[in-house]
Amino acid sequence: MKTRLTEMLGIQHPVVQGGMQWVGVAEMASAVSNAGGLGILTGLTQPTPEALGKEIDRCRQMTDKPFGVNLTILPTIKPVPYEEYAQAIVDSGIKIVETAGRNPEPFLPLFKGAGIKVIHKCTSIRHSLKAEKIGCDMVSVDGFECAGHPGEDDVTNLILLPLAARRLKIPFIASGGFGDGRGLAAALAMGADGINMGTRFMVTQEAPIHENVKRAMVEASELDTALIYRSLRNTARVFKNSIAEKVVEIESQPGQTDFEDIRPLVQGAKGRELFEDGDLDHGIWSAGMVVGLIDDIPSCKELIERIVADAEDIIQQRLVQIVSA
Ligand SMILES: Cc1cc2nc3c(=O)[nH]c(=O)nc-3n(C[C@H](O)[C@H](O)[C@H](O)COP(=O)(O)O)c2cc1C
After folding, report:
1. Angle CA(8)–CA(10)–CA(11) in degrees, nearest 5?
2. Is the minimum distance from the CB of 197 to ligand 1 under 6 angstroms?
3. 285 lines ligand 1 (CB under 6 A)
4. Up-side HSE of residue 6: CA atoms within 13 Å toward CB?
5. Terminal CA-CA length for the chain
6. Is residue 233 within 8 Å of residue 251, measured between CB atoms?
7. Looking at ligand 1, which atom is closest to the CA of residue 42?
8. CB count, 10 Å around CB of 322?
9. Residue 106 neighbours by CB distance under 10 Å
């Protein structure tokens, strides 16, 4: 498959692995890139900008294919030196950056000056148009189905993607709810240049998380995600475990939710520990509705090849038969 995404980034398949806190380390990103997709290291998973520089070096030793770095600019419990992370990315010679969270405009002169292709991930058409206007090279359009932060508009990809196709001039990637060949074929049909996946890549052999987490996601249905932080207007879609249910319950109490009431439940460190030791009710973790479509734990290579082959089959067989009947 050849799209503006594969051409612009020099990758074989139109499949991207989005930034994932605590998951997007060198093992994950290099496995996706070696399989012909675009792997992305998650900048803030590294404790310092220096550590990110070292992780980038480690990833380079594991793949000679292109990979990127995600810079997520979101409200965090601890303040983050974003400028220093951005500088570490530039100093490491990275040529692809995925930004997310807030408007990436303050970082664009630095990134563009270093010849970096910037993919901004956002959850609405107005933010996609803004990203195009300020000079981003591409956008990832994250629908309401997605893991992590779907925004507050609650618009699914069936609407967002055709809108993006109508209004954007720059290429765009469909993100949120993708996990199989049907999804890839549909994304391409709706005008996208490829797909971005988070949840599906968590459930692969190379994802550096405990087997229990992967198995829980294989067993989960499309109903097993929860929306937390709705009352704080910072919505996040997470796996529906007892902690997520508790947070939703606290938020449903009358009156404004005090973040202090939920802080002990949602600490990032607990999510990281959960990924390490497999205790599924120790904290929260991001997961999308696509868990309902996941029923195995393949290697990244098997997964990407299957998705692309199935999509090609749908396009060349099923769709061709329909229009030529
Ligand atoms: C465990 C996990 C952690 C994530 N962390 C981040 C993050 O730190 N920054 C970010 O921009 N997106 C993050 N995401 C979102 C993904 O990059 C991607 O946009 C999303 O997973 C797409 O939806 P999907 O899960 O349905 O494929 C995360 C997703 C998951 C599953």
Report:
1. 115
2. yes
3. yes
4. 14
5. 25
6. no
7. 8
8. 8
9. 13
Q: Is the CB of 21 under 6 A from ligand 1?
A: yes
d(CA 91, CA 313): 42
Integer angstrom CA distances of residue 172 from 25, 31, 72, 151, 271: 24, 23, 18, 18, 30
Give the β-pairing of 39-42 and 67-73. parallel
Residues 6+ apart with CB under 8 A from 118: 97, 99, 104, 108, 111, 112, 135, 136, 137, 138
Core vs surface per residue 236-273: b (16+ CB within 10 A) or e: bbbbbbebbebbbeebeeeeebeeeebeebbebebbbb
- DSSP code for 182: H
Decide: 45 and 226 in contact? Cβ < 8 Å: no
The two structure tokens encoding residue 180: 């199989």
Which residue among 38, 146, 272 is best mutated to probe the pocket of ligand 1, counting the most ligand atoms within 8 A of its Cβ?
146
Domains of the chain (ranges plus CATH)?
Answer: 4-209 (3.20.20.70)
For 76-100, how does the pLDDT look when each residue is reduced to its tens digit (9 = 90+)?
Answer: 777 899 999 999 999 999 999 999 9
The pTM of the full predicted model, rounded to 2 decimals, is 0.98
Question: Distance between CA 13 and CA 29 in Å, rounded?
Answer: 14
Q: Give the span between the Cα atoms of 32 and 15, in whole angstroms.
A: 9
What tens digit of pLDDT does each residue of 123-135 get? 999 999 999 999 9
